[in-house]
Specification:
Strand order of the largest sheet: 2-1-3-4
Keywords: Signal
Number of helices: 5
Largest sheet: 4 strands, antiparallel
Order of helices and strands: HEEEEHHHH
Radius of gyration: 44 Å
């Protein structure tokens, strides 16, 4: 009988202690987020255990239980402000991407052209290739002119009047005229291509000179 009573008393004591501990445990999470503090539009200093509604338009400090600042919470943004912020973020990302690509191109250019001699040689080779193409076209033009001379000799038998010449001769004369004009247009296009090549190499050289200068030690650049 005494043992049963003693057991009941022990259980009652344990239950009482556990119940007394519950409020403290329940209160702990309430302060775990910190204390919010701000000065509102009227100059009032306000503190609360949650974000302060009257300070949504300004920065709020979050303090720990010892008063140490844990972090800061920015003002609540309007839809327009959030859109502007997102646009600015995308713009910054695009600019960073552009800079990365630019640095990558610069590294590739320096690897290909370590000095101006290499760059000049590449320019000369590119121009030479176009000149070779122009040379072939010019030779073709010479051949066409020689062919035209022979056709004109045949045309003399018809008093230099194409209307009196046979259809085959007239067709050859027309083809020759068209071919010469085509070769002339082609040569002009290749001359324009040479100009574009020189412009490209000029722009590259301007950029390369800056990159080469950046690679030199500061003491060397000062002399």
């Amino acid at each position: 009988m005494k043992q049963a009573l003693h057991a009941k008393l022990s259980l009652y004591v344990v239950a009482t202690v556990w119940a007394g501990a519950m409020p403290a445990q329940a209160q702990a999470p309430a302060n775990s987020g910190g204390i919010y503090a701000c000065t509102d539009a009227n100059g009032r200093r306000i503190t609360a255990d949650r974000p302060i509604a009257s300070c949504v338009d300004r920065e709020q400090r979050v303090l720990g239980t010892t008063g140490v600042e844990l972090r800061r919470v920015g003002p609540t943004l309007t839809d327009q402000e959030r859109s502007a912020q997102e646009a600015k973020r995308r713009q910054d990302q695009a600019e960073q991407q552009r800079l990365r690509e630019e640095r990558s191109r610069d590294r590739a250019m320096l690897a290909r052209f370590p000095n101006q001699g290499v760059h000049d040689a590449a320019r000369a080779e590119a121009i030479a290739q176009v000149n070779d193409v122009i040379g072939v076209a010019q030779q073709r033009q010479v051949d066409l002119k020689e062919r035209r001379r022979k056709l004109n000799t045949e045309l003399e038998f018809y008093q230099n009047d194409p209307k009196k010449a046979p259809a085959n001769l007239r067709r050859q004369l027309d083809d020759n005229t068209e071919s010469q004009a085509e070769q002339q247009r082609f040569i002009k296009q290749q001359e324009e291509e040479k100009q574009r090549i020189n412009q490209r190499f000029d722009a590259e050289l301007q950029q390369l000179r800056k990159l080469w200068a950046d690679l030199q030690p500061a003491a060397t650049r000062s002399h």
